[in-house]
Specification:
Helix content is 26%, strand content 20%.
């Protein structure tokens, strides 16, 4: 694993010769191999008529993290209430004053860009064979089962409970994990549970954390392509940063909302397993990544989940025999993740597999 541990800090190699179109295995190479490209290959055309979607701009809830960790008891009580409302009404929110230095965030985005700038041959070494490979890169979502590819290249690195990139100091992943754990304490309280309930029941000491770098190159026909289709995330919470190029949209009250992030903030969204644990009170929300024809978008999503061997089911404390029966059956987190990551990504079909009919 020593060679792979360096991938987040390697500098770009000299430009490789253009790869023949038939052997192209990533979107970046496809774009750069033909500077005159004016249309996209047919296997990248998304069948849904995206122009029919209504897209609006609305303000997402903003959570002041400092009030959650160092505010007065009254301030904390108020922000816990706001956090619960954001989870219930939106499933997405912005976190400010989180304490993660801006230069550390920029360093991680730059490290992702450096990886994507490696030659196709160099990246192929980290292609991976299985969703549980601790370091894996590729294109689309699961190109082995998809008929239509998405306009996206990715790098995924497991960073907790075992850190798989020792060549890169784990400061960023540790800091974001601290933010996620504090948010989950507040969310636990907002559900009427004990502060450490989610921490203890989901075994967060050994919780699964993954860094997912995403590259969305310029697309000559952005109205026909999709960076990532509508989907929800596995796990409890996902924290996201990007290079301030728009493209993320979330579904809210039947409309798609264009997300414009605040400087030095995290965009946070609820994952499927928080929906399961809360028995549907807090729902994971569909979101998608659109592409443009001018600029490359780079994003870094940090997903936080239970320990891989934890069976996640609705919290018994939130259930009663009359009006609030279990809406989801239990499944080991590892099995759920493999189910979602090994299939065609399609809205919330994986979550539908554990719904009680």
């Amino acid at each position: 694993m020593a060679a792979k541990s360096q991938i987040l800090v390697e500098t770009p190699s000299s430009a490789s010769s253009l790869t023949p179109p038939m052997s192209i295995s990533c979107v970046k190479e496809l774009v750069e191999s033909n500077t005159l490209i004016t249309s996209i290959p047919s296997n990248y055309i998304f069948s849904t008529n995206l122009s029919d979607d209504q897209v609006v701009t609305e303000e997402l809830p903003i959570i002041d993290f400092s009030l959650l960790t160092s505010g007065s008891p009254d301030q904390r009580s108020k922000i816990v209430h706001e956090l619960g409302k954001a989870c219930q009404d939106w499933g997405f929110f912005m976190v400010i004053n989180h304490g993660v230095p801006e230069n550390l965030r920029e360093e991680m985005l730059n490290a992702c860009q450096r990886f994507f700038d490696l030659t196709e041959e160099e990246k192929r070494e980290y292609a991976g064979k299985h969703v549980t490979d601790p370091i894996r890169c590729g294109t689309s979502f699961n190109a082995s089962v998809e008929k239509v590819f998405f306009w996206r290249d990715f790098l995924k690195v497991f960073v907790h409970p075992e850190f798989h990139s020792p060549g890169k100091p784990p400061g960023f992943s540790k800091r974001t994990r601290q933010v996620a754990i504090e948010l989950l304490k507040g969310i636990s309280e907002s559900l009427g549970l004990q502060e450490y309930y989610i921490d203890n029941e989901m075994k967060l000491e050994k919780g699964f954390q993954i860094l997912a770098g995403n590259l969305y190159p310029p697309c000559p026909e952005p109205e026909l392509a999709m960076g990532m289709p509508p989907h929800s995330d596995h796990g409890l919470l996902t924290l996201l940063i990007d290079n301030c190029i728009g493209g993320l949209q979330i579904q809210h009250k039947g409309k798609w909302v264009q997300v414009n992030s605040l400087p030095n903030s995290f965009l946070v969204n609820i994952g499927d397993h928080l929906e399961i644990l809360s028995n549907g009170k807090y729902k994971s929300v569909l979101h998608r990544a659109k592409v443009n024809d001018k600029t490359t978008r780079v994003s870094l999503a940090i997903a936080h989940g239970p320990s891989l061997d934890t069976v996640v089911s609705p919290a018994p404390e939130l259930l009663n025999s009359e009006s609030n029966k279990p809406a989801y059956s239990g499944m080991k987190y590892r099995d759920y993740m493999e189910l979602q990551q090994g299939s065609v990504l399609n809205e919330k079909t994986s979550l539908d597999r554990v719904r009680v009919k």
